[in-house]
Amino acid sequence: MEAPVYGNFRRYYGMRRARAVGHEGGVAVRADGVDERVLALVAWCKAHATRIRRIERVLDVGCNAAKPLLELCQLLDPPPTQAVGVDIDAHLVAQARSALRRAWSQRQPAADSTSIEAMHYFPTCFTSLMGQLPLPSSSASFPTNVTFVAQDWMDGTVAAQYDLILCLSLTKWIHLHHGDEGLVRFFGRIVQSLRPGGIVAMEIQPWQSYSQARSLSRSLRVSHARLRIRPEDMEWILCLLGMTSLGPIAQGAGFGFVRSVGANPRVLRLALGGALSQQTRFPHSQPLYVDISHNYADTLWSKDQQRALAAVADAMIAPLTPEEKDAFLRGLPSEERARAAVLADMKFTDLPDGVNLVAMHVTLTVSYTLRLLMSTLLAALSTRAGCLVLVGRVGPVWQVDAPSIRRFLAAWRRSPIQMVRMGEFGFRALTLAVFYRHMRSAAEAIGYPWGRTDDWKTPPKADEQEAIPPYEYRFLNEELPSTPTEAPVDVHADVVIVGSGCGGAVVAAYLAERGLQVVVVEKGMYVSADEMPQTQSFGLDQMFERLGFVPTSNLSLAILAGSGFGGGSTINWGATLMPRHYLREAWSQRFGMPYFQSSLFSHDLHACARRMGTTDDVTHNRANSLLMLGAHRSGQPAQVVPQNNAHRPHYCGKCTFGCTAGHKQGTVMTWLQDAAQHGAQFLTHCEVDRVIMDRGRATGVEATVRGQQRVRVHGRRGVVVSAGSLNTPAILLRTPALRRNQQIGRHLHLHPVAFVHGFYDKPVRPWQGAALTTVSNAAEHVDPQGWGAKIEVMASAPALYCALLPYHDHVEHKSLAFRYPYSYTAIVIVRDRDGGRVKLDQGGRALVDYSLSAFDHTSLLEGVKRAIEIHMHAGASMIATSQTGVPVYTCPPRQENMASHEMASIPGRYELDDVPAQGQAEHPSFQAFLRSVERVGFGPQRGAIGSAHQMGSCRMGAHPASSACDPHGRVRGADNLWVADGSVLPEAAGVNPMLTILATSMGIARHIAEDLGVARPLDPPSLDAAPRAHL
C-alpha cells in the first residue's frame, strides 16, 4: 500500500479511542462511540440555535471514511438536506459509501420510538450475516441526502455554498503539499464556500506532528523546510479572512489526537481582522465589511508588477547578512537575543499574501492619481529599459540585488521631483505598515503582546476592576431580505441620522427622548466590548476609515479617522479636554456664533463631560510619566488630560483598537444606549450615497447595505448628517440639489501631527496603561492669536510606530524597531490656521486636498523642538524625528540622577520607580540636532505627518459667504437638513475635539427639537429661540 502522504490513512478512525455514550439530549447514540468532536459540535449548534442559521448543507473536506460526517447527519436536529464528503483518495471514498450503507442498515431509533422504523430495525449482527440494506431510491433525508466525491478539493472553482464545513485533521497535509501560499488559498476557498452566517469547524494540527509526516516522502521533507507559517498563526490567517473565533469547543482524544476544534461564524463581507481569541464568545455583532477574499493584486497589477513590488518590499524589509546580524545582536541581553534573531532574519514576503495586502490598501485607500503613479512605477521596474532609467541597472528589478534597490530608493527620497518622492514614500509607508500590522511574528519579535489585554483589571495602586457589561443592541439589518432584492428596501422614521459618532449619537438620544422615531444609519460595523480582538489588523481595518490610512491627494499627510459604530469615540484615546477660552471668544465674535461664548455652551460642555464620567484622577503609564517629567524639568507648562472613563482608573493602552472593559465612555456606552432605550433603531454597514431632496426639502437618504442591498431611509421630518468631516461633505456633494452651496467641503482643518520618538535605557512598554493622560502647552501660542501646537503621547502599536520611524536603511530600521519596548512617541498636534478642502474623486469618494501652510509649518517646528527637549530632559538615550534626512540623535552622557522626590511636585500618580537622569540640553551636539530638524523641516514627503482630528468642512456660522451651515446647523439651501458633527466647527479646536463636538451637537439637537416642535418645557432654550407658551 502506498504511503499516506495526503493523510489518507485507511484505518484512521480505528486509531481513535472509542468512547461509550448513551442518550445525549434525547438523541439516540450508539454505544460503540460517537466521535467526540461531533458530539461537541452538535451540542454547540443546539445551544446557539437561535443565533445561527439553520444547517441545511454540510461539506466535509478530506472526509476519509466519513465517520464524523455520517454521525453528524444523524445527530443534527433538524437534519441537513444535503451533505457532501470530498476526499482525494478514491479508495477512502469507496469506504465512505460503504459506511453510509452500513450506517443506514444499523440505524437505531430512539428507545421510546414506536415508529415503523423501530419495527423494521436491522440488528447489527445481520450486516455480517446477510449484508447491508440497499439505500432508498429517493428521499430528502438520511441516507440519500449524503453524497461523496473523489477529487482534490484545491482544484476547480468554488460554486456551492454551505452552512457548515468540516475541516478535521487536514491543515497539516494542505500545508505540507501546497506550502504557505497554498494554505492561505485553502482557507480562502473555505471562506468562499460558506453561506452568510455559516460555520467552519476546523481542527488545526500542532507543529510537532509535522515532523513525523515529513518522513513519508522526500518532497514533504523539502516542503517542510520551506514553511514559515506555524499552526499558531492559522487562527490569525482565518481572522484576516473574516472569521471570528469562538475558542475551543472540544478536545480530541487518544493516540496524540489532542487538537482543539474551533467553530467560526462566516461573515457576509470578508474582512481583515485581528487574531482570534479563545476568550471571544459567540458574536451578536454585524459582519465585517472589508473584502479580503478578493484578489486585489491580480485586479490591480500584472504578475510582473506584483513581482516588482515584492522585490522592492523585500529590499526594504530584508534579512540581515551574517555580519549585520552579529552586530545587531551584539550587546543585547540574553533573554532578548532570540526575539532579535527572529526579526533579523525576516523579509517582507514572509508575510502570507503580503503583496495582495498592499494592493488592497492601494485599492481602498489612496487616490486614483496615486494608484496610477504606483502602478506606473511598478510597470517600469518590471522591464529592462524602465529599470535602467529608474534604478540605473538593467532589469527587471527582481534581478537587481537588494543593496542596489535600497540605493535607488534612497535617491528617490532625496529627489527634487515631488512625484518621485511620492512614489518612494507610498511604497515605504505601505510596506512597513502592512508588514508590522499583519505579521504577528514580527510584532511579537519587537516585544509587542498580540491580542487582547487585561492590564485594565489590575491597575497600579488601585483595586481590581471589573468590566461593564455591553448593552444588547438590536439592528434593522436583521429585518432586511436575506437575498438582496433588485428594488430598494424602504425604511421609515421621523428623523434619519447618518452616523453614530459624537455628533449623531447625541442628536439621536436628544430627539428620541423627546418622542421622535429615529433611525441611525452607520456605514461601519458594531463590535461589543467583550468581542473586541484588540489587534492592530482588526482595529485599523474594521474600525478606522479606509483601513486606518486616508492620505491627502499629494500624500503629504495621512489621516486617522474612526469608522464604525460609535465613530471616533470608539477608537479615540480617551482625552476629554475643554476648548480654550480664546477659541470660544474668536468663534463667537468672528463667526457670529454667540452660543460658543454663552453659559449655554458651558452647560452643554459640562453635561457631556458628566455623561461620560470624565475625571482628571488618572494613573499615568511610564510614557506619560516621562513626558510630564521632561516638561517639568525643561520648564514647560504641562497638565493632566481628563479621561472619559466613568471615574475608573482605566489602565488600557490598546483602547485605540476598542475598549474591552467598557470603561471608556464613548457613544456606544452612553448616548447610543440612551437613544436605544427610547426606541431609536440602528442600521449598520449602510453606506449613504446622497440625501433625498423633494422641492428643496430633505426627506431621507439613499444608501447601500453591505454593498449589495439598496435601501431608502425616509425621514418624514428631517435628515441629520453626522458622518464626520470627511464623509459629511462627500454625502452633501453627491446630492445634486445642494450644488449651489459652494461652502460645502471647504475650511477643512486636520490638526497636523508630527512624531518625535524617544528611546530610553529602561523599559517603557508604551502599549501599557492609559494612552494619553498628559499634555504640554509650551508651544500653544507660537502666534499670539492662539495658533500653535500641543505635545502629547501617542497610543502606540507596531504598525504605526514602525511606519513612522525614520528609514535610512534596513539595518537601522530593524534596530530602532527592536527598541520599541524602550521607547515612546511624542506627538505634536498643530492648531492649523489655514485649512484644506474635501472634494470628490472620480469614484465619488472623499478626496482631501490639504498642504501644510508656511504659517502652520512654523507652529509644527516649534512643537517638534519642544517635544525633543522633553525627551532630552527626561533622560532619553536616543531621539528620532519622522523626518527624511535627519539622523537619529544619540544623546551625550546624562547628568547625575536627581533626587527621587522630584516627581512629588508633579500632579498625578506616576509609575516611575527609578527617575532617569536628566539629559544635557545645553550640549553643543544637541543644539546642532535642533538646528538640523529646523533646517530639513516637514515639506511634502520630507517627513511623516498625520492627523487624528478632522474639523470644519461644513462650517457653521452667521455669514453665508463663509459657512455651509447656519448657526442652527441647518445646511444652507435646504429645508429640514442639518449637520451635527466635527465638520460644523468654525476652525481647528486646538485640543482633542471630542468634548467640543459633543457639546456643539447638543446645541444643534436643541435647535432641531425646537424647529420640529418637540422641545420640552424644562429644556433650556436656545439663545435665539422664540418664547414658549406655558400653562
UniProtKB/TrEMBL annotation:
Residues 36-269 form the Bin3-type SAM domain. Gene3D superfamilies: FAD/NAD(P)-binding domain (3.50.50.60), Vaccinia Virus protein VP39 (3.40.50.150). It comes from the Eukaryota. Keywords: FAD, Flavoprotein, Oxidoreductase, S-adenosyl-L-methionine. Its cofactor is FAD. One of its GO terms (molecular function) is long-chain-alcohol oxidase activity. The keyword Oxidoreductase applies. Its EC number is 1.1.3.20. The keyword Hydrolase does not apply. Belongs to the GMC oxidoreductase family. PANTHER family: LONG-CHAIN-ALCOHOL OXIDASE. This is Long-chain-alcohol oxidase FAO2.
